[in-house]
Write a structure and sequence with these properties.
The protein has helices spanning 13-24, 50-53, 68-71, 132-142, 155-166, 187-199, 247-251, 297-311, 375-387, 393-396; strands at 2-9, 31-34, 74-77, 82-86, 91-94, 99-107, 111-113, 126-127, 147-151, 170-174, 203-205, 210-215, 221-225, 231-233, 235-238, 242-244, 260-262, 273-275, 280-283, 291-293, 323-328, 331-337, 344-350, 355-362, 365-372. The protein is an alpha/beta fold.
């Protein structure tokens, strides 16, 4: 049985960040990066954008040159899915019965796409967008597809809709809530993006509940929407969130209800076991101290750096302001902060001009900003969120007043 000083389960952004930061910190022990795919680590954000569109190829996704891993003495273990963790023996067991020992275990297994629960959720016409294989299968079917139904009006669904519309497909987006991006954005931002997609020929239906999906004899599918006309589709894309991949850890006794709970250094309640990335729930000062899971590259990198510092016995970096982005058509949305619990939102600029920001306030203080083609607000707004600045409505709503005007002196 192979044994490593640090075994990292999950070869996505968080796992790679942990491995690379350990080496940058001067860690000399053995490191293995175990992924469930047969590919070297690759970038995930382009999957729903340029890779889906065919603008880049598989090799363009690689996070590092192929010779990087050997040069850094990081062992890549491909095609392994961990099914059991024994924290006392410090062993993981894979589905193919491979056993791996560890000194420290880093769980960076991310999440799996949330599936529909209705009949027809497993038809071959139904796709998710989470890994390269998902998009490769989707691209294959797209060659002859005309009509696409996207279920879910979050970022993945809308990004896919933008790409497919650009490829000349007839696209319909179905969102169960009363507006797209309802969980993450205020109504002015939701309304802007719904209108943006409609301007590009996408049909957007809200309050749309899918009853079932039926296969048709001609290879197409029928999407049955509650109380509305059925939709015929060549392809159905489901983007309704993810479920954190933590079953082996929770079965071993790790604490957590939404993912796995971790402390500031990303330690779980199990001895010698850390968790990072989409599956890790951590108290966050920018969420009012609440324990949250953050699904972003920035969070994956920051948590990877934190645990690498803890394992290397060096000070853990201070938390940074969370940030996210989404590209749809020629529009770039950049978000700073976490708008959990916001009680007011102020719009800066004119949505009809395709450039504006929405500033989120909680008890009168700035907690987050959505910047739509507003790069200056994004750059200057980070400090406002970090400071929790208290700014008056009238000043905030005037885009001619730079946000840096409100920085604390």
């Amino acid at each position: 049985m192979d044994r490593f000083d640090v075994l990292i389960v999950g070869a996505g952004h968080a796992g790679v960040a942990a491995a690379t930061r350990l080496r940058q910190n001067g860690f000399k022990g053995s490191i293995a990066l175990a992924g469930d795919e047969m590919h070297a680590p690759y970038e995930r954000p382009p999957l729903s954008k340029d890779y889906l569109a065919g603008k880049i190829q598989a090799h363009d996704l690689d996070m590092r040159p192929q010779d990087y891993w050997a040069g850094q003495a990081i062992v890549l273990l491909k095609g392994l899915r961990v099914s059991d963790v024994d924290p006392e023996a410090r062993i993981v067991i894979c589905e193919d019965n491979t056993q791996l020992g560890y000194g420290e275990l880093v769980w960076a297994a991310g999440g799996a796409p949330r599936s529909l629960t209705c009949d027809g959720h497993d038809l071959p016409q139904v796709h998710a967008i989470r890994n390269r294989a998902d998009v490769d299968a989707l691209r294959e079917q797209l060659q002859t597809a005309r009509d696409v139904v996207v279920i879910g009006g979050g970022f993945i669904g809308l990004e896919a809709a933008a790409v497919l519309s650009g490829l000349g497909k007839s696209v319909t987006v179905l969102e169960a809530a009363d507006r797209v991006l309802a969980r993450v954005a205020a109504a002015p931002v939701s309304d802007y993006f719904a209108d943006l997609h409609r301007r590009h020929g996408v049909t957007v239906q809200t309050n749309a509940s899918v009853d079932c999906i039926k296969a048709k004899p001609n290879g197409r599918a029928t999407v049955c929407v509650s109380g509305r006309s059925d939709l015929t589709a060549d392809i159905v894309i489901v983007g309704i969130g993810i479920l954190p991949n933590v079953a082996p850890l929770t079965a071993a006794g790790a604490a957590g209800s939404n993912g796995v709970d971790v402390d500031r250094e990303c330690r779980t309640s199990l001895p010698g076991v850390y968790a990072v990335g989409d599956c890790a729930a951590q108290h966050n000062a920018f969420a009012g101290g609440e324990r949250v899971r953050i699904e972003s590259i920035q969070n994956a990198n920051d948590q990877g750096a934190a645990l690498a510092s803890a394992i290397s016995f060096i000070p853990v970096p201070a938390p940074t302001v969370p940030w996210f982005w989404s590209n749809q058509y020629d529009v770039r949305l950049q978000t700073i902060g976490l708008n959990r619990g916001w009680d007011d939102a102020v719009v800066r600029g004119d949505p009809e001009a395709d450039s504006f920001s929405a500033v989120y306030l909680k008890a009168g203080r700035v907690v987050a900003i959505d910047c739509v083609n507003a790069a200056k607000d994004f750059v200057q707004g980070k400090r406002l969120v970090a400071e929790g600045a208290a700014v008056g409505h009238g000043s905030l709503s005037d885009p001619s007043i730079p946000l840096k005007t409100f920085w604390a002196s």
